[in-house]
Amino acid sequence: MNLDRIYMDYNATTPPEPEVIKAVTEALQEAWGNPSSNYIAGAKAKAIINHSRENVARMVGGKAEDIIFTSGGTEANNLVIHTAVEHFRKNCRAAEQGEAHSNGCTGLPHIIISNVEHDSVRLVAEHLQRDGKADVTSVPVSKTTARVEVEDVIAAVRPNTCLISVMLANNETGAIMPIQEICQRIKSLNKQHERLRILLHTDAAQALGKIRVDACELGVDYLTIVGHKFYAPRIGALYVNGPGTRTPLYPMLFGGGQERNFRPGTENTPMIAGLGKAAELVTSNLSDYESHMRSTKLYLEERLRAVFKDRIRFNSHYPGSDNLPNTCNVSILGPTLQGWRVLSNCRRLLASVGAACHSGSGNRPSHILLNCGVPSEVAANALRLSVGRGTTKEDVDIVVEDLRETVQLLEEMN
Ligand SMILES: Cc1ncc(COP(=O)(O)O)c(C=O)c1O
Question: Which of 43, 55, 157, 345 could form a disulfide with 276 if both were Cys (CB 3.0 to 4.6 A apart)?
């Protein structure tokens, strides 16, 4: 990366911490054996994987056996949705044979998501719906709070609902969703009816390393973990509360039995080592990371307000909603100040207009912001500025000055 550039796109990805690089390198050099081999090189790899599993579990308040390593967040999210559909089908087959309750077994499995989910949830659900394999309800977030409201989720439940998947924090607005409340309400529904249990999933990709995340407190059955959002390499994991016992888990892949057959394939020891180290860092330093990012973001917002005055709109501020400590989504109003145009003329700032996976969708305003009630002309100018552990106030000053000059240039050009 050009040293002159200032990176403010930590919601897209984060650079691995030096300790993480060290753990990955050491594992590559010293633990290259197949973890399933009984001799020393294999045993060393196995020990590293076990240790990492414990560290990842500790970060999310789970037990080591609740962690299944995956290639990343996309796979973890797919695995949950696949499981819910398989579980529904198995249950209905058992009901046909008189071995289970037939409640909810009419029709297709029904999945509830929010209308601001990441594509690795939204597109899987839409694909199943298009193929006639599931019914999907996409609950709109409130245009006031940018959160899904608990009552709206409850109102969407049907007898055949088998999964609710709502992200813990949104990647563009930073809005934190009421997962604990949703889980509490659904758990009492699950108890009340002799019905197929509704499984509860949250994609915690954007929350980990930024706010405290405890899967047990939240009450979820599944929680998605994405390494490259918290200074680990590109690998992920799925937390499952008692995989295969308390909570169903059906593999998408079949092979050599690794990850207790839930996700076979020879383990990626170095990346797992890096994930474990990054998780350990989060567990030890979360409050420092969080307070540093929050104060840096507040300073950024203050400077933006001071320079752009009433031309500034924050698309990450919603009354009554908590927000990630690092995410500032902002529009500078003006007919020539579309987000992509501003960013492509900035000399120092590296940021994005929204989710990295939408960067191919042309210059259309983010559907996430539109769904949160941001007017189209404001959403078109959105800049997602997400700060990291190492972002300084000096960086903020440089970025705000860069934005001031860029805005001036674009307005003069017109
Ligand atoms: C909320 C959310 N979920 C899932 C993902 C996908 O994770 P991965 O890139 O590891 O597949 C991302 C990031 O890209 C994300 O922001």
Answer: 55
Give CA separation, 249 vs 49, 262, 274, 284, 387, in Å.
21, 7, 25, 30, 35
CA-nearest residue for atom 9, ligand 1, is: 73
Determine the distance separating the centroid of ligand 1 and the alpha carbon of 31, expressed in angstroms: 28
As a whole number of angstroms, the distance between CA 414 and CA 45 comes to 60
Average pLDDT of the chain?
A: 95
What is the rounded distance in angstroms from the CA atom of residue 380 to the CA atom of residue 369? 9
Catalytic site residue 162? no
Please identify which of the residues 183, 328, 357, 372 carries the catalytic annotation: 357
Q: Report the pocket of ligand 1 as residue ranges, CB < 6 Å.
A: 72-74, 118, 120, 167, 171, 203, 205-206, 226, 236
265-275 pLDDT tens trace: 999 999 999 99
Q: Integer distance in angstroms from the first to the last C-alpha of the chain?
A: 31
Q: What is the rounded distance in angstroms from the CA atom of residue 348 to the CA atom of residue 401? A: 9
- CB burial readout 180-217, b (16+ within 10 A) else e: bbbbebbeeeeeeeebbbbbbbbbbbbbbbbbebebee
Give me 159's structure tokens.
């007898």
Going by C-alpha positions, the residue among 282, 219, 208, 273 that lies closest to residue 53 is: 273
Which residue do the tokens 């499981």 mark? Answer: 83
Answer whether 0.85 is exceeded by the pTM.
Answer: yes
